[in-house]
């Protein structure tokens, strides 16, 4: 169920929308199809007469790492998949332009290339881009041939990187620790053809142009003023009298405002036209009704239209309160959603996905009740930011960043990318916060960040923050919102708070629970090395617990981003998996139980979901968990009432202990004010007898453009056609027709990608087929021993490609902007913000802890004081010189947990820091590097904790990483931390 009425685009409506946007005074060509590619670095591949006949034919989006990803078991230790091709490759494209284009301005736009792109046109070097995530472009006009003479554009692409992300200078964000190392022209490429008198493109890198800027003021339900500016250039050889026209068009294509200005534009001059448009009774952009207008800016000379450009417009007001959270057009909205990697790899495809497939993922986030997204460390793609506009997702938008304070060339690239990102995306109403970086900056760097925002987005009123700004005192004077991590503490009581990445646990989709027959998880040979030894049930429960405890119950908290939505190969901690299994969906976007848990909490309509299946062994007795946004839940088995729960744990979680399994049906009902609003049933499924195939294609169909994708779900089903939830059958596939098999993956096995065989997981799996440039019918047949076979035929549709280009732009879905979500039926009560409850300390200032459990600051440590937040253990023997000091009460549950930057604070005074460490666990690097063994020990309920010490100056930032990673004793003690002020 998608929260807005989604309409599939038809070819007629597609043409209609394009004509609404602008007359064809400028042409935007789809430059994706039909590139030549070689996975090698030949000499002089940029020259015109280079023979590329033996190279492969590919279409963008394309990555050369699609076949060597999701195929290795995780290394663990937050290290991403390392075994991928790294090096230099080449792309070349042959294209022709009509003679009628001679004299026009022609620009190429790359939505981004990973990681370093050197671009040439007809043998001439144009430039280099190193950002990997930010759009860039070049002016090709003076280098091109027209008519029958061919043009060659060549792109040398390099995705190599250093072995350790901390040493990967200067591109510290280009590492599998952050992003799967998927190199190539992995996003769209466009060719823009326009009149010499034209509105510029928002491509600052190289072109130094900024395009249009649209913003609204004095917004109410009665009226709004919309200010439009458009940077315009006259590259003709004569002065021109130009009329600038700014039209505002509503979602139905109706013009609601038009303003004009006429000015002389001298030859070679760049001028910014500006208008003030008035919109009466504007339809406002809400997260639950993200109404979108278009601003069509047009240049005319007399009656002749020279150029036209379309800019998105959402009219909205907003504010973030430190006490009450986020408000949109005066209406309160709790923000809930996900952090997402801008690569967002897909098994078999890597990061190279057509726009509609990215939107397929976005629609799942929308279905699960999301209204917030934080792009993880680097910017999302243009298509995905536009999706934020139309699905109502408040967006936290970064430039490019790793996790460090950077200097020199790294900072120069980063700050330029931040500028380019703002210029490109500043008109999108879904962006509410600019993320200056994934780490705190110096005062000088913050000033650069704010200067860029003031220069290029002076009226956006967007907030700015850096994740982990609390590691530096410089941050306080510059950030306007706190971007938290793991949601436990609030470091800036005077600022609004948004969460960037909470719940980093991992749980694979195939592992239901310990009462279910194992599918290579509980018995996996690597299980002892896992940081997270949990199945799908516990992972779903933790969605509820973490959301409520860290954000949901805090009335002052704006909300935040669950980390992450899709499983990927970036920095996993479970060597039983080929992914970091932190997503609510897996690496082919199949839903986990956690997906249904978030949906049951966050959707505004009445929701209910019983976690798990109903195919247990006859003697099974277990707790059944239900997630619902109702206030009372009843559970039935075979129509017999088993229990009623009227007191949810953590706001939304209902528990029914000691439920005895009976074959048949389990049903749950959700009530509000004793009125039945929603129910769900699950039944016992019979043994599988057949395979079921279901194809999925884009809204216009499967396009024969060389890069479009068709998906096929395969399920093992019983005689009634119902999916068997324990099915793990191996299925063999054959394919015929013009399609390229991309396959899928099995989450617990190496080398399962791109094979024509695959196991079902929890009764289902998904494979992908890439189109070719030839249209036709592709037949996929699936067979498995003991099951009835199945076949499905998918027809790819021809795409008109002429001289290397197409006017058919990448397909996407459209939505009904006139539909509106209801307000939530029920929200559990929360307490008003009480600043007195904030952790306070004279020594541990700007304290934060990103572990799984909750830490607390305490004073006056002595014998008998409680050591941990989750165990009734007290300090039993401590050195006398520590008595009376301040200390951190840690969660012992994190004794086996590893996470970078687990504990951090700024020294509030010159102080001595003491750490007690369980030496049955290898000493972590931060302890070995920064602390000295005192020779003293602390006896902690029979466990000897070695005591270490360092001295810190007032204002110094202190960071302590995790306690362990890997195989450690089951009764491991988490380290403790004590601070003592140095007396003058």
UniProtKB/TrEMBL annotation:
Tell me the keywords, alphabetical order.
Answer: Glycosidase, Hydrolase
Domain (Glycoside hydrolase family 2 immunoglobulin-like beta-sandwich) spans: 218-316
Reading the lineage from the top rank, the first entry is Bacteria
Say which family it is in: Belongs to the glycosyl hydrolase 2 family.
Tell me what this protein is called: Glycoside hydrolase family 2
User: What organism is listed for this UniProt entry?
Assistant: Polaribacter aquimarinus
The UniProt entry, under InterPro entries, shows: Beta-gal/glucu_dom_sf (IPR036156), DUF4982 (IPR032311), Galactose-bd-like_sf (IPR008979), GH (IPR017853), GH2_Domain-Containing (IPR051913), Glyco_hydro2_dom5 (IPR040605), Glyco_hydro_2_cat (IPR006103), Glyco_hydro_2_N (IPR006104)
| Residue ranges occupied by any Glycosyl hydrolases family 2 sugar binding domain in the UniProt entry | 56-192
Residue stretches making up the Glycoside hydrolase family domain? 702-793
DUF4982 domain mapped to chain residues = 621-675
GO molecular-function terms, A-Z? hydrolase activity, hydrolyzing O-glycosyl compounds
The uppermost taxa in this organism's lineage are: Bacteria, Pseudomonadati, Bacteroidota, Flavobacteriia, Flavobacteriales
Q: Could you tell me which residue ranges the Glycoside hydrolase family 2 catalytic domain spans?
A: 326-459
């Amino acid at each position: 169920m998608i929260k807005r009425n989604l309409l599939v685009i038809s070819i007629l409506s597609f043409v209609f929308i394009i004509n609404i946007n602008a007359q064809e005074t400028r042409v935007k060509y789809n430059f994706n199809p039909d590139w030549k590619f070689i996975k090698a670095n030949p000499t002089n591949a940029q020259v015109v007469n280079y023979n590329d006949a033996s190279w492969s034919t590919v279409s963008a989006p394309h990555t050369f790492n699609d076949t060597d990803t999701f195929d290795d078991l995780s290394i663990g230790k937050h290290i991403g998949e390392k075994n991928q091709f790294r090096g230099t490759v080449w792309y070349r494209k042959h294209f022709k332009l009509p003679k009628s284009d001679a004299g026009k301005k022609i620009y190429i736009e790359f939505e981004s290339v990973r990681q370093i792109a050197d671009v040439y046109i007809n043998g001439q070097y144009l430039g280099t881009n190193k950002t990997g995530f930010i759009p860039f472009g070049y002016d090709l006009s003076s280098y091109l041939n027209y008519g029958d003479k061919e043009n060659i554009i060549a792109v040398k692409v390099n995705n190599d990187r250093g072995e350790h992300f901390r040493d990967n200078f200067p591109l510290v964000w280009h590492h599998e620790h952050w992003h799967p190392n998927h190199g190539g022209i992995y996003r769209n490429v466009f060719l823009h053809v326009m009149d010499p008198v034209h509105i510029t493109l928002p491509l600052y890198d190289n072109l130094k142009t900024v395009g249009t800027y649209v913003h609204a003021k004095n917004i109410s339900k009665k009226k709004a003023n919309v200010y439009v500016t458009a940077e315009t250039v006259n590259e003709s050889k004569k002065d021109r009298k130009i009329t600038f026209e700014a039209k505002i068009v509503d979602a139905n294509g109706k013009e609601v405002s038009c303003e004009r200005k006429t000015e002389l534009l001298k030859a070679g001059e760049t001028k910014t036209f500006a208008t003030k448009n008035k919109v009466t009774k504007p339809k406002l952009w809400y997260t639950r009704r993200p109404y979108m207008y278009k601003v069509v800016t047009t240049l005319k000379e007399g009656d002749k239209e020279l150029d036209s450009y379309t800019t998105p417009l959402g009219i909205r007001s907003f504010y973030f309160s430190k006490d009450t959270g986020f408000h949109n057009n005066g209406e309160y909205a709790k923000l809930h959603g996900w952090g997402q990697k801008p690569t967002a790899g897909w098994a078999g495809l890597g990061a190279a996905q057509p726009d509609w497939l990215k939107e397929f993922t976005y629609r799942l986030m929308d279905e699960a009740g999301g209204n917030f997204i934080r792009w993880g460390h680097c910017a999302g793609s243009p298509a995905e930011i536009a999706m934020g506009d139309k699905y109502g997702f408040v967006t936290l938008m970064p430039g490019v960043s790793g996790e460090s304070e950077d200097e020199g060339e790294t900072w120069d690239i980063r700050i330029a990318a931040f500028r380019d990102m703002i210029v490109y995306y500043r008109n999108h109403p879904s962006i509410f916060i600019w993320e200056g970086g994934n780490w705190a900056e110096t005062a000088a760097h913050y000033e650069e960040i704010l200067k860029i925002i003031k220069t290029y987005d002076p009226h956006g009123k967007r907030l700015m923050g850096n994740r982990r700004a609390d590691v530096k005192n410089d941050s306080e004077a510059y950030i306007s919102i706190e971007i938290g991590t793991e949601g436990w503490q609030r470091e800036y009581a005077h600022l609004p708070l948004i969460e960037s990445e909470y719940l980093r646990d991992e749980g694979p989709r195939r592992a239901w629970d310990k009462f279910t027959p194992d599918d290579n998880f509980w018995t996996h040979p690597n299980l002892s090395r896992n940081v997270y030894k949990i199945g799908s049930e516990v992972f779903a429960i933790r969605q509820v617990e973490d959301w409520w405890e860290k954000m949901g119950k805090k009335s002052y908290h704006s909300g935040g981003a669950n980390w992450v939505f899709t499983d990927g190969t970036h920095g996993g901690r479970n060597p039983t998996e080929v992914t970091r299994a932190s997503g609510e969906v897996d690496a082919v976007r199949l839903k986990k139980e956690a997906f249904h848990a978030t949906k049951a909490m966050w959707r505004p309509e009445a929701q209910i979901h019983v976690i798990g299946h109903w195919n247990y062994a006859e003697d099974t007795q277990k707790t059944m968990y239900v997630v619902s946004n109702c206030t009372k839940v009843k559970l039935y088995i075979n129509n017999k009432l088993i229990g009623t729960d009227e007191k949810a744990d953590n706001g939304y979680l209902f528990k029914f202990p000691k439920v005895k399994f009976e074959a048949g049906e389990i049903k749950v009902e959700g009530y509000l004010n004793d009125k039945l609003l929603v129910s769900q049933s699950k039944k016992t499924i019979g043994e599988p007898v057949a395979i079921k195939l279901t194809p999925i294609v884009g809204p216009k169909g499967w396009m024969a453009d060389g890069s479009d994708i068709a998906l096929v779900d395969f399920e093992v089903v019983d005689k009634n056609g119902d999916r068997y939830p324990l099915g793990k059958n191996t299925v063999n596939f054959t394919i015929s027709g013009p399609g390229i098999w991309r396959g899928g993956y099995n989450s617990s096995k190496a080398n399962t990608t791109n094979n024509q065989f695959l196991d079902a997981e929890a009764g289902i799996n998904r494979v992908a087929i890439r189109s070719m440039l030839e249209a036709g019918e592709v037949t996929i047949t699936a067979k498995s021993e003991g099951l009835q076979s199945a076949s499905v035929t998918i027809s790819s549709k021809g795409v008109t490609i002429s001289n290397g280009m197409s006017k058919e732009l990448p397909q996407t879905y459209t939505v009904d902007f006139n539909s509106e979500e209801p307000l939530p039926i029920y929200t559990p009560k929360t307490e008003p913000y009480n600043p007195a409850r904030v952790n306070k300390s004279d020594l541990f200032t700007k304290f934060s802890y990103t572990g799984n459990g909750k830490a607390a600051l305490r004073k006056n440590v002595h014998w008998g004081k409680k050591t941990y937040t989750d165990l009734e253990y007290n300090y039993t023997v401590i050195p006398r010189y520590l008595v009376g000091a301040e200390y951190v009460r840690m969660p012992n549950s994190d004794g086996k947990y590893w996470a970078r930057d687990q504990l951090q604070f700024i020294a509030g005074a010159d102080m001595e820091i003491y750490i007690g460490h369980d030496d049955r666990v290898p000493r972590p690097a931060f302890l070995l590097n920064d602390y000295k063994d005192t020779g003293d020990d602390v006896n902690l309920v029979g466990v000897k904790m070695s005591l270490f010490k360092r001295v810190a100056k007032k204002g110094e930032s202190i960071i302590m990483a995790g306690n362990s990673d890997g195989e450690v004793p089951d009764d491991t003690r988490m380290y403790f931390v004590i601070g003592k002020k140095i007396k003058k």
